[in-house]
Amino acid sequence: MQQNFPLSECKEAVHSVIHAINANGKTKAKLLGLGLGVGQDVDVIRNRKGDIVLRTGQSRISLGRGLAEKIMIVEA
Fold it and tell me: pTM here?
């Protein structure tokens, strides 16, 4: 089984799948509203010092580093 790690540590141009979300109910609901839930495929477009830009389906989403640390992923 592959090791899971926070989205904030993922390198650019990597395809991965959300494995778990370590957040309270309000934050988890916000992420689900953005279309980010367990089992969702995501591609990291940009991961630099600030925000992290993801592609999920046809959408691009920018997340702050603190929020990205709560999303656990595995590389697909």
Answer: 0.91
